[in-house]
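Support request, please re-run this one:
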Amino acid sequence: MKRQPTEWTFRGRMWLASLLLTSLLPIRPASAQVPQLIRYQGQAVDSQGVPLEGPYTLTFRLYDAATAGMKLWEEQQTNISLSKGHFSVLLGQVTPLTSMDWSKSCWLSIQVGTQPELSPRQQFTSVPLALRAGTAEQVVDISARLRHSASQSLAHDTDTPLVFDIEEFDTAGLHSTVTNTSRLVAPTAGKYFIWCVVQFVYNGTGWRRIFFRLNGADNIGSCSVPAISGEVTSISHGIHYRLGAGDYVEVISKQTSGGALDVMMSGVSTPLCGMVKLQ
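Re-run finished. Output below.
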């Protein structure tokens, strides 16, 4: 029997903004017409921290302010399947997003069934910019999405590159499963969106950190969170960054539990990383 939660939240609570950046991806065909569909992925747990299961009705709204403000867009999606709390939807498939002005800030709210809207709202930032960059006659798909087939052990307080041995897709040779398997390489210069999803095994001690390292040297974007007692610690993170041809990026992970700790392999949901050229 499906539980009716008294509260919905994303596991880790404080990573809503980071999760938004990594899981809102524009769906774009190779044509001049820019679609108004955005992939939204997340994980939800109830007020006791238990991942939700089964179908739920979700209502998504966009506002022009972080609180109160004017509602700009709304759609309701029914029978959204949740497995271990994970869900994935396409925003805009019920109510078109064509009326949205992406040059202005907006905030997303989510409502589960008849429960109150989640708080705080989540600000749309870099991803909708990709929807505005659709003036070219043809869009060349330069992108890759990677995962790993086993858990990876991290030593205490040590920067460790995560490796990836499965390519769900790689349209332009951004990655190799034979050599330098931690690297995503930009084949051409431009602005890229780089993202990752990492889960650490149960351990409530210390902090967990991921960051993107450029060309084996520079940290170009990091996210650190405290471990959560009794739960896996999940981090989703992404950045929008200009890369030169041949530049490479790695996902670096670090933990301070006091001993060795694994980055989990959980089906097709973690660890994940990817990169897509926006322009």
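The longest helix spans residues 16-23. DSSP finds two helices and 20 strands in the chain.
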